[in-house]
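Attaching the record inline, Q. Sequence:
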Amino acid sequence: CPNLRKFQLKQAATFADRSPCTNHPIQCEFCPENSPAVWKYNLQSHILDNHPTASIERQEKRFKVTEQEQTLMKAVFLMKPRMSRKKKLQFGKLKISEGH
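Structure, as predicted:
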């Protein structure tokens, strides 16, 4: 995949002021064990769409985004991106598949 990026799951799941995003792939408890992981921020929708009889309240702490995380993520979103010219050239433009 040309868009493949490596990241550390434990680090991605841990909230920090300098890295507030905790979106990471997690296993849905209602799906079979060999099913693909679901991103944390999409878990609520996944459960509602694919497991309508499941108790969403019992799973809330797995997908809930704290107010502090929301606030800091908004600040990250509004910041001007800072990427060196070298990095820009290294990554180039991401290719989006026709399925998206």
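The beta strands are 25-26, 38-39. The first strand starts at residue 25 and ends at 26.

More tomorrow.
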